[in-house]
Design a protein that fits this description.
- Helices cover 77% and strands 0% of the residues.
- It is mainly alpha-helical.
- The protein has a single domain, classed as Heme Oxygenase, Chain A.
- Helix 9 runs antiparallel to helix 11.
- The relative contact order is 0.19.
- The protein binds 5-(aminomethyl)-2-methylpyrimidin-4-amine.
- The site of 5-(aminomethyl)-2-methylpyrimidin-4-amine has 10 residues, from helix 5, helix 9 and helix 12.
């Protein structure tokens, strides 16, 4: 593969079905998210280390809230099959992403007690409480749509940076973070989640509910963009 990454060519699943339509219909906000200066900072390796460490701490706290929302997805599931799918996503966050994240933080000298004692940032509070609100008051489809930018966005960032000839690999302290989100384990989690969103969309009348779903998706995308700013010093 040469040149810049393109979803249509390099990961067509992200452009298809309900997930693809939502991503396409908020493309301006989506590109603000996946092309944020944070992403450029990790690609070039120029981000300040202290800023990145602060982001990692906030992201640990965020993932815990995200896992709670996935637990509510299990609760909201109306069939045993749906429950199993939701439980798989929950286990993917707890056993794959959070485990990877804790191990990764350790490599940066951040141990679990420090993670647990950290204070939640305003950006984290806004984003996670928005998700938890949709989890409490919406149905399975509202919740899956709200959870989707988180799942898909980092995988797209990982894939884009993996493919980009401008990404610095040698000596880049952030290359391992890029590799984590561009890696097979996280990619498989995302593919399951996207397929599930498309199935639930068909079963729960996404067509008729589309304007509301697009608002939920776009709000989550905007909150993702703001969340990158937790990468700051001090
Ligand atoms: C804020 C945020 N968004 C997305 C991801 C990737 N699941 C994450 N770890 N953190």
């Amino acid at each position: 593969m040469t040149g810049e990454w393109q979803a249509e060519r390099d990961w067509p699943l992200l452009t298809q079905g309900l997930a693809g339509r939502l991503r396409q219909d908020c493309m301006k906000q989506w590109l603000d998210f996946v092309g944020h200066p944070f992403v450029e900072g990790v690609a070039s390796g120029t981000m300040e280390v202290e800023a990145f460490r602060n982001f990692l701490i906030q992201d640990y706290l965020y993932l815990i809230q995200y896992a709670r929302a996935c637990a509510l997805l299990v609760h909201k599931s109306d069939t045993l099959t749906a429950m199993r799918h939701a439980a798989q996503l929950l286990s993917g966050i707890l056993d794959t992403e959070l485990s990877m994240h804790v191990g990764y933080c350790r490599q940066w000298g951040i141990e679990e007690p420090a993670l647990e004692q950290a204070e939640e940032s305003i950006e984290l509070l806004a984003y996670s409480r928005f998700i938890l609100d949709r989890a409490q008051t919406g149905d399975m489809l509202d919740l899956l749509v709200t959870l989707a930018p988180c799942l898909i966005g980092y995988a797209e960032v990982g894939a884009r940076l993996h493919a980009s000839p401008r990404t610095v690999r040698e000596g880049n302290p952030y290359w391992s973070w890029i590799a984590l989100y561009g890696g097979d384990e996280y990619t498989a989690l995302v593919e399951d989640g996207v397929c599930r969103l498309n199935e639930v969309g068909a079963a729960y009348g996404a067509q008729a509910r589309y304007p509301t779903l697009l608002r939920e998706f776009t709000t989550a995308v905007r909150l993702e963009t703001v969340f990158w700013t937790t990468a700051r010093s001090g």
